[in-house]
Design brief:
With 766 residues, the chain is an alpha/beta fold. It is built from 30 helices and 21 strands. It has four domains: 2-173, Pyruvate-ferredoxin oxidoreductase, PFOR, domain III (Pyruvate-ferredoxin Oxidoreductase, domain 3), CATH 3.40.920.10; 225-355, Alpha-Beta Plaits (2-Layer Sandwich); 432-543, no CATH class; 584-761, Rossmann fold, CATH 3.40.50.970. The N and C termini lie far apart (73 Å).
């Protein structure tokens, strides 16, 4: 009997498998509370969870660890060692992490550890278990090629490389390790941490008395510090050219550039470089800092690092060798102020990364192709961003209790996020925009009424006019006008005592009497129309700043289930921005085929390879003529991605950005640590095209269509397909049809490219 409980993390997440074995049918309807065997597959869990809870006396414990024989006793928590000694536990350990890397399975340790489990427990004869495991490997992975099968065979065989730990009887008297003190918010210690420790069901209802309406504290992911990466990047300043590309592509915002002024540098204990550019930062110090405990170790940063003269500034090393770096990270985030105000963060890739990410440490897969786009948008517009999120991967890693990666800047400003369904996410987002629009109309109406009142102070009138002039400016001018207006309104409200004193000085006894009566009735401020409007407007001040409305969903929601809503929203002409994270399958539900799945790819519901052409969502949207549309791939052209997002948000109307996002379900042979490079490969060979359609150019008599990618190298197309299991497995299962399907895929790519060329050639000046 098996029952599995798990969290929603895509990488390094917690899964607890409750297994029972017996000769008769097992009908237990409750979890295993007193196991005689426990396996801990991630060594970081030793401190995150109560891994020995309920383990029976004389039971068995298996640990996957990179710690060597002499290091193990030193690193095990005292609480765990004490339990081992008191309960006479047989402890075994194995370095399945390194074995998986050596075999070529990346971070997939499950087969190795399953083999070790059968060898240790002998719930069935080990030889029989190994034989059955290898049969099942053929059944599970046979369609992915002989190489994958052989690697898993090797994993089964190397499951024998476990060792037994000698238990020191003195451990039975060890005290608990000293608990680290923290100054974290009470909500984190009292609610978030118990839930993350799998003890959420022990929390009383009263713990949630401030979350009755469903709101949740932002930025809780920063307190997790899971430390689940096997390897993390280390920075070599001598080879760094300060391009910030590593931070730009990081899926988890766990590597960032920090710029330190003289005071901040004096308090630091780490190496820095002198800032090369921009000019506004001259004389300051520069450092690339890694948050090693939040990094998931994908390696994309190191992979794309251009380095200096062929020597990269980043390389991947074991996490255990870099734990001291966490102190440096803490210093940077706690003591180094953001310098983004010194540069235009929207101007180029380098400057964009001086902006604090307001989407950090999400539960997405290591190397995720989606999250770099989401993160970048928060860096550009996050302080005024509203997000309507479709259900799918992007909703799971963005808002699964208790982890919230959307956070706020040092002023407390950040994205407001809510999740809807596949079928109505675009309507949900348009509803947000329409509501915001209506509320801003109310602000304008009340502002004009305030300005029309004769005795409204001129300072208030001037601030009101400045806000009206800049209310649709999403930049610094709009933010300043909004803040100045709110301050003027605060200043413009007279207290009841000030009003009484004024009328007394004027000798107006009747008004003095009226104001004193108002004060006696509980009034604290002037009840005149001007002051009343000031108070009413202050209640609406959250609408003073122009909001940036984003609607985010995957291809399943956008191309398929929610397409009707998407079409309705872009047809409406409303000023919303839609980001489609195109993985070409339903990623969150297991890799089912969508209308975005291309010809020749294997996916669920297309087990023999998709037979029909991929839907060109972008071109469909251009037929309206008033919708901004762009197709991007960050790893292929970082600057084009930035430009498309910037143009889309600036466009006064609906915009649609379709972003290519490599996914773990693609089965990249090079691994998800090369997901950014895979985007480049896709564009280079013609599989994916980069383009923008900007209706604003047509008004100027220019062609609204711009093809940003170069002439494809078509001779690389077939090699690109062979580099992903979703295509290569077709050749294994259906060799006779594979060539036809792959040729069709290439022909379709050429057909699409040629249609773009025809659009490019049109004369729009006539």
């Amino acid at each position: 009997q098996a029952y599995f409980s798990y969290d929603s993390k895509k990488s390094g997440g917690f899964t607890c498998s409750h297994l029972r074995f017996g000769d008769e049918p097992i009908r237990s309807t409750y979890l295993v509370n007193t196991p005689n065997f426990v396996a801990c597959h991630v060594q970081a869990y030793l401190r995150m969870y109560d891994v020995t809870k309920g383990l029976r006396e004389n039971g068995t414990f298996l640990l996957n660890t990179i710690w060597k024989d002499d290091e193990l006793a030193k690193h095990l928590p005292n609480k765990v060692k004490r339990y081992f000694a008191k309960k006479n536990i047989s402890v075994y350990y194995i370095n399945a992490t390194d074995i998986a890397q050596e075999i070529g399975l990346g971070n997939r340790t499950n087969t190795i550890l399953q083999s070790a489990f059968f060898r240790i427990t002998k719930v069935i004869p080990a030889d029989l278990a190994i034989e059955q495991m290898k049969k099942f490997i053929v059944k599970s992975y046979g369609n992915k090629g002989e190489d994958i099968v052989n690697k898993n065979y090797a994993a089964v065989d190397r499951g024998s490389e476990y060792k037994q730990l000698t238990i020191d009887p003195a451990w039975a008297n060890l005290p608990d390790d000293e608990a680290a003190s923290n100054n974290d918010p009470a909500f984190i210690n009292e609610v978030v941490r118990p839930i993350n420790a799998q003890d959420g069901d022990l929390l009383p209802v009263s713990a949630f008395t401030k979350s009755e309406d469903g709101t949740w504290m932002q930025g809780t992911s920063q307190y997790e510090k899971r430390g689940v990466a096997a390897n993390v990047p280390v920075w070599d300043k001598d080879n760094c050219i300060q391009c910030n590309q590593c931070a730009y592509v990081c899926p988890h915002a766990s590597i960032r550039p920090f710029v330190l002024d003289e005071t901040e540098k004096e308090g630091a204990s780490f190496d820095t470089l002198e800032v090369k550019a921009p000019t506004a930062m001259k004389g300051m110090a520069f450092r690339i800092q890694v948050d090693v405990l939040d990094c998931l170790g994908c390696g994309n940063c190191a992979d794309i690092c251009p380095g200096f003269k062929g020597n990269q500034a980043l390389k991947m090393v074991p996490l255990d060798t870099q734990l001291e770096e966490q102190k440096n990270w803490n210093y940077c985030v706690e003591n180094v102020k953001s310098k983004q105000h010194l540069v235009d963060v929207k101007s180029n890739v380098k400057n964009s990364q001086f902006a604090t990410p307001l989407f950090e440490f999400s539960g997405a897969c290591s190397g995720c192709g989606e999250t770099p786009y989401v993160k970048l948008i928060t860096q550009l517009f996050g302080d005024r961003e509203m997000i309507a999120n479709a259900t799918g991967c992007s909703s799971i890693y963005s808002g699964s209790i208790p982890s919230t990666p959307y956070t706020v800047n040092e002023k407390g400003q950040g994205p407001a996020w809510a999740n809807s369904l596949f079928e109505d996410f675009c309507e949900f987002g348009m509803g947000m925009e329409l509501a915001n629009k209506k509320m801003r109309e109310r602000v304008v109406e009340k502002t004009k009424a305030l300005m029309a009142i004769e005795w409204t102070h001129q300072n208030v009138k001037d601030a009101a006019q400045a806000w009206l002039d800049n209310m649709n400016d999403g930049g610094h001018a709009g933010r300043k006008a909004a803040e100045d207006y709110a301050a003027a309104l605060e200043w413009g409200i007279m207290t009841i005592d000030e009003v009484i004193a004024y009328f007394e000085s004027e000798g107006n006894a009747d008004m003095v009497s009226q104001m004193q009566a108002a004060k006696a009735a509980g009034a604290t401020s002037c009840p005149c129309p001007a002051c009343t409007l000031c108070k009413e407007l202050l209640e609406l001040k959250s609408y003073f700043v122009k909001r940036s409305q984003w609607i985010i969903g995957g291809d399943g929601a956008s191309y398929d289930i929610g397409y009707g809503g998407l079409d309705h929203v872009i047809a409406s002409g409303e000023n919303v921005n839609i980001l489609v994270l195109d993985t070409e399958v339903y990623s969150n539900t297991g890799g089912q085929s969508s209308k975005a799945t291309p010809v020749g790819a294997i996916a669920k519901f297309a087990a023999a390879g998709k037979r029909i052409r991929k839907k060109d969502l972008g071109m469909i949207a251009t037929t309206y003529g008033y919708v901004y549309v762009a197709q991007v791939a960050m790893g292929a052209d970082q600057a084009q991605t930035l430009k498309a997002i910037r143009e889309a948000e600036a466009y006064n109307g609906p915009s649609l950005i379709i972003a290519y996002a490599p996914c773990i379900s693609h089965g990249l042979r090079s691994g998800m640590g090369k997901s950014q490079k895979e985007e480049k490969n896709a564009v280079d060979c013609g599989y994916w095209q980069l383009w923008r359609y900007n209706p604003a150019l047509e008004v100027e008599g220019k062609n609204p269509f711009t093809l940003d990618s170069k002439e494809p190298q078509w001779d690389k197309f077939q090699d690109f397909l062979k580099g992903e299991v979703r295509f290569s497995s077709v050749a294994k299962q259906f060799p006779e049809e594979a060539a036809e399907l792959f040729n069709a895929a290439e022909a379709n790519a050429k057909w699409r490219y040629n249609s773009y060329q025809r659009m490019l050639a049109q004369n729009w000046a006539k």
